[in-house]
Amino acid sequence: RIRNERSVNSMKALWLSKILVCFTSSSSCWASSANCTFKSCPVCLSDRKPMPIVTEGPDGKAYTTAFRIGRNERHWDSQSLTSTVLGIVMAEELGIAVEYVPAFDVTAAMLSMSNCENWMKGECRRMLTDNASAEAAASAFASGSKLFKDPLPDIMFHPEVTGWADKDRVYPTIDWAKTPLTTSGPIGYHSTDHLYVFKELAEEALNDTGLVLDHWRSYTTPSVLRYFDTPRELIAAGVTPETRGCSSSDELVQAGMDAHTELGYTCTQDSWWLTPSCAAMGDAWKDACVPVLDDHWGFDKRALYQNMALSGMRLAKVTVGYDLQYQLIMSSKHKALFHWWDTDTMFLVKQPLIVNVPGNHEEPLSKVAHQPTLVANERLKVLLRSLTIPNDKLNEMLYPAAVARNAQLFDDDSQMFQKVACDWLRANSELVLSWLPDFRVCAPGHAFDAYTSKCKVCPSGTYSAKKTSSRFLECVPCPRGHFCVGGSVSPILCPRGSYANASGHSECAHCLPGRYADTGGATDCKSCQDIIAGSTTLFSAAASRDDCTCPEQTYHRQDSGCTHCGEGLHCPGGLGAPLQAEGYYGMVLPEYGMDGQEWFFMFECHADARRCPHARLGLCASGRTGLACAECQAGLIPLDDGTCGECNGGSHAIFILACIGVASAILALYLHLDNNVIAKQSQSMLLAGIVFSVCLHVLQQLGTVGTTRIEWVDPVSSMLDFVRVFSFDIEVLSSGCIISQTPMWMYVLKLFIALTIVAIVLLVHVAVVLLRHRGCFRERLPTLIGSVGTLLLLFQMAIVNASVPPFECNTHPSKFSTVAQYPTIMCGEDGGQDWQTMAIIGICSVLLVCAWVSGCLFVIYRLPKQTKDNCEFYMRSFTFLFARFKPDHYWFSAILICRNLLVPLAQLLPDSTSQLLCLQCLQVLYLIAAVHFLPWRVHLANYLDCIVTIVLMIFLSCAALFVNIPDAESIAWISWILIVLIFVVNAIVLCFGHLQFLFRRFRKPFSFFLCHHKAGAGAFARLLKLHLTDLTSRSSRHQHQTVFADSDEPENLSHILDSVISQSEQIVVLMSNDFLLRPWCLGELVAAHLQQPSLKTMPVFWPDFIRPDDAYISKFALCMDCDCLLSHGITIAKIQSMLEWLRVLPGLSLPASVTGDVVSRIAANIVDGFVDQNEGNGDDLLASNQSQTSRVLAIADNSNTEIVATAWILCKMIAPLTAQDPGFAPRCLEENGSVPESAETCMFILSNGAFYKPSFVRHLIQAARLQTMALPIIGHAGFRFPGKAFLSEYQHTASSMLTPRGICENPKVLAQLIGRLCEEVAIAFAPKCYFSTDDLLRMKARAVSDRLVKRQMPRLVLGGDESAAVPSEKSALASQRDHLIAEHEGRHNVNQGLPSKVPFQREGRVLTAETPGEPVTKVNFGKGEVVIESFDSYFDDDDAEIACL
After folding, report:
1. CA distance to 489, 883, 983, 994, 1405, per residue, from 987 (Å)
2. Contacts (Cβ under 8 Å, ≥6 apart) of 271
3. Which pLDDT score is estimated for 267?
4. How many other C-beta atoms can be found within 10 angstroms of the C-beta atom of residue 41?
5. Which of 246, 612, 887, 1224 has its CA 20 to 30 A from that of 117?
6. Is the dihedral of CA 1428, 1434, 1436, 1438 positive or negative?
7. 3-class secondary-structure state, position 1129
């Protein structure tokens, strides 16, 4: 054996010498067998392009990747070269792409193919399992714990794997039996663990002493120690173990140490492991044992270690690791044995000798691959199974590889592996052919493809079979009724529930729903329609006729098969009876069916879907009964969850307390009305009543909205349920615990509530009148009417709400209609006697409400006449209709009543959409009226009403979001019409404006525009307007035209400017003294200037008017603030340009003394050129007024132009009223005129300072001497009635002012005369006041005319007793009354001009004047109105109208 070992060693030496010569001589040595080098010829066997293979990942997806082969890149050349040989054959013969994966040892290979995480580090943490995902793989790759990016396990093929006995102990967490590993047979050569000795040492010992160092017996004697270094010397030289200590936290290292302990090795404190023979030496082992260098704990050489221990060899082993062991051995510095294995090139160049140790250490090597990889390619499976390389063939690669590495002929080992493997393959082509299968002989399920010259898997729809004339397999189409998957060896019968109606199917098609196949191998499916009409299967691939059933939304009828499931039914499918869906009530009526079949009628559940649960037909929630589960069983009340429950004490109490509360409220309302007097009612109390009525109406409107078919949700649904009580819905008060709740009875009871309220009012009225008013029923009748009217007005909407339910019907899926609020009553003929009775009662009730509304409208219509007639009974009885509204908007209660009637009638519309649309329209119309008129007497109530209406409109808009639209097309058309209406209205307005513009170009609405300053020419402008109106009214040219004064629009400058620009033919400018100081007047003149020359301008200059000069025009911006005109485009530059134009504008001049002839001439001059000559001078009426036979004179201060104009206006307005008796037509007395003897009545136009004017005093004295009747007229709003102090002062000052002007009358007599004049009640007639409209002035003129005709004024007397100079208390109070009215019209301090003997008190807006023994006169100064709250006894009928005004 020794000789044989030596011959092997000699053979290796020979090979090394030959290879070394070949490598070092030239490259021609390589070309002698391959004709090329690796670098110049990378293709080894053929130029077939490698293709990747398809691998199935653990996530069930197919991935196209290269085939991975584990290859050690260092110190394991046998495995690396074998892997390279396999890779070249796979790539160039089978066309499979190859990727070499670093695998430094067997452990890494086993861990990688077992899907272990961190297998490159020798660790195993399970990461990829059968349900692994690409995300998990990506995360592992990013953390560095996985080698590849794809979600496949890090698998590979490993060509050199030994049995690993310790794998279960080292990695207990891995179930190695379940790992997807498969062994493809032996690799052909063996792996043998050896103990090696350096060749030089062996030759030295053999030549010196004849000791054979390559035999184990030499190491049992101490003589061998002379040829080796001792362990002590190695320790001293720095040889340290890889792992210190006798234990380790590394599981792999600890497993090796445990194995050594089991074999009898002893661990020292220096981490050396001693064989039993060495350990027997005790502490001398460092000098008495041969050292052995081991590589790594992970490479287990159990058999060698065991034989070393049992053979008695004195060995001390130290594990130094791969790197240190390689350095120590290759350097040959230390003389020691070392462990390594055969079929490796690591130390081949050292030519070490194998120490012959007893026992067989050879282990066969196998090939291991991942099972899914083998399945992917059948030819690859054959190659892996056939690949074998004997030891002698392996050595042909190992020795060249060892020499090439030692000589460093290649840049890296991968090039060397490729070159050596390629040369070996070329030299062993016959061996390679034995590995490859016959291309034409294919495995079952495959067939030879002549085009590609390789076997291919039979595609889906075919199977492999031999034809009669061939011995090779071919792919044959699969017959009908069968299917064939890819690689099938025989056709497979289609299972039940599937079919194949043609040949070549790769899979059998499942029977579609509605069809079934009850036998295998079917070529078609049978239809369920042949068994049950309309039936189907609830799933595909049905395998039995019993699977045929009715589908969802249908139910089975014996006569017609599967019938469609109508609305309200729930049909889960099957042959059973249908169920009622939640929210629907099903009623079975056999009499409606045919052939004994039942017929289902479905009704939508009332109010709450939970009342009708999802169950069998006809089943209601707990405690409910009746059609649509609308009623509770006797003695039960509705609960919030849709069921009905037992009554409790609280349920009774709620109803009783509600009844007591209603009766108390009625009593309180009656007592309030009985005590209430309008004159004493405060604004806060009135506001409280308005707020209460508005809130009650809102609650009733919400109750109306709650009756619509809208599916509300909480909290709105709970709120709407609560407000139903304000619509007489007593079910909310748990009335079922007190009284019966049949539909008919509940309907009648709701309507009876209104009669009950009226009855309670009657009882309260009788009791109060008997106990409080001593039985005066007639006098207290207005209180009864007011109380009943107030309650009916408050609950009018509730009464209509309670009346209309019989006509509000819901159509159910069964086409029957039931009353919406009483679902147990059917509508129409199906409802029978009950519905007819309810309908008659409802019609009568609505008609009664309509009669009540008509009566209220009639009362409102008659109110003005009754007020004028001072009908106290009428006013007190119907106060509830108008007391809350302003006097001029008393009729607004008619709008409120009509709205309250129409709102509940909206329930009669067919669907919720139209109902909400109608309610929204009503709210919009009411809001427009409320905003426009602001009718409520309390101003704050107007804002409240508008805000509440707007919020209610928003609520209705939100309610529309809950509506299920049944007919979207109708809603779309309505929306389209509304949109079109917007553009139509815009077009109409545009056309109207354009037509108006065209009309104004040819015929303007105003013939003259009077521009004036109201304080300086207000009365004169009105007088001129009267003259111009008379003249233009008789002109054919100016028919349908009027005269416009800018005082007619005192608050709208835009309209005034538009009137100047586009609506007037001529502008008349009254140039009073302060005219140019008014910005609005300047703006009107600028507008007129810009319209020149189309707009004619006629100025009338006052005597004291000064035309603007250059200095005034240049400094105009410093003198005037005209910012209000800038927004209208009127700048300072335009104003200055207008002033330049005004300087040279010709016009008329007004004389200092204005007479009727002057005004007539001015009017005629203005109209001149516009009036036909044959139509007269237009002053006939004035001429008649100036007749000397007039019995009525108007005396004024002729030095005051405005007062004279006031007198002429009064005369012109009275003249038409006295047409039947022209003698009463007044005329104005001029300054130089005198009172004629024919004068009977003189109207004195009073103004401040008039009693100091000579002409006025002279005319007064003349009238007194003639003893004419006197009627004082207040012509100026600021006039102060003369009191005692004034008359006393007048006696001392009058002579000094009047005597020089020819008035020599005794001042005392004059004072008495003035006092007598002021005793008569005066009438205010002030045209200059901004609120004095033409209608108001005519009404006052009519009052003056009536006083003149009745002739009841006192006569003036010159002289008399001194006491007559002071007005009596009574007349002073009357004068004060008229004065207060005049003062309010003039908007000045009401404290001026009050008689000193009449004390007054002012509290806020109420002024009270009291006289001892006389009634109280109280004047309330409201905003924009005067209300006389009580009349004193000396107001006669003639004064009533004025007093009311």
Report:
1. 85, 43, 6, 10, 49
2. 241, 243, 244, 245, 246, 318
3. 94
4. 13
5. 246
6. negative
7. coil
The overall average pLDDT reported for the chain is: 78
Tokens encoding 150: 């794809």
- Using CA atoms, how far apart are residues 1117 and 1139, in angstroms rounded to an integer? 12
> For the chain, how many helices (H) and strands (E)?
46, 53
> Do residues 114 and 160 touch, judged by C-beta distance below 8 A?
no
Q: What tens digit of pLDDT does each residue of 1364-1415 get?
A: 333 333 344 444 444 444 444 443 333 333 333 334 344 444 444 444 444 4
Note the pLDDT tens digit of each residue in 653-684: 667 777 787 788 888 877 777 776 554 567 78
> What confidence tens digit (pLDDT) does each residue in 1072-1095 have?
888 888 888 888 888 888 888 888
Cβ atoms of 1202 and 1019 within 8 Å: the answer is: yes
**pLDDT value for 870:** 67
pLDDT digits (tens, 9 = 90+) for 927-960: 999 999 999 988 899 999 999 999 998 988 888 8
Burial classification of residue 135, based on how many CB atoms lie within 10 Å of its CB (0-12 exposed, 13-18 middle, 19 or more buried): exposed
Contacts of 257 by beta carbon, 8 Å cutoff, 6+ apart? 246, 247, 248, 267, 297
Residue 659, φ and ψ in degrees, nearest 5: -65, -45
Q: How many angstroms separate the CA atoms of 134 and 89, rounded?
A: 32
For residues 255-260, give the mean pLDDT: 87
832-868 and 781-803 are packed helices; what angle lies between their axes, rounded to 10 degrees?
Answer: 140
Who wins on pLDDT, 663 or 146? 663
Predicted TM-score (pTM) above 0.70: no
Average pLDDT over residues 220-235: 91
Q: What is the CA radius of gyration of the chain?
A: 63
Q: Name the token pair of 1205.
A: 């104009």
Question: Phi and psi at residue 1010, in whole multiples of 5°?
Answer: -95, 110
Cα 936 to Cα 930: distance, rounded to the nearest angstrom: 9
Contact 1197, 1275 (CB under 8 A): no
For tokens 């003039």, the residue is 1386
Chain-centre distance of CA 1414, in angstroms?
70
- Identify residue 548 by its one-letter amino acid code: C
Closest CA to 1205 of 1045, 1375, 1394: 1045
Phi-psi region of 179 (alpha: psi -120 to 50; beta: other; left: phi over 0): beta
Q: From CA 351, how far away is CA 201, in angstroms rounded?
A: 12
CA distance 847 to 844: 5
Kind and range of the H or E run holding 1169: none
3-state SS, residue 1070: strand
* Confidence class for position 1173, pLDDT limits 50, 70, 90: very low
Distance CA 458, CA 1004 (A): 103
Report the percent of the chain where pLDDT is more than 70. Answer: 80
How would you classify the pairing of strands 337-341 and 181-197? antiparallel
Task: Estimate to the nearest angstrom the gap between the alpha carbon of 279 and the chain centroid.
Answer: 89
Average pLDDT over residues 537-561: 85
Three-class SS state of 1085: helix
274 in Cβ contact with 289 (< 8 Å): yes
Contact between residue 1316 and residue 1357 where contact means Cβ atoms under 8 Å apart: yes
Ramachandran angles phi, psi of 630, nearest 5°: -85, -20
pLDDT the model gives residue 7:
44
Convert the pLDDT of each residue in 234-252 to its tens digit. Answer: 999 988 898 888 888 887 7
Which residue type, as a one-letter code, is found at position 1146?
A: P
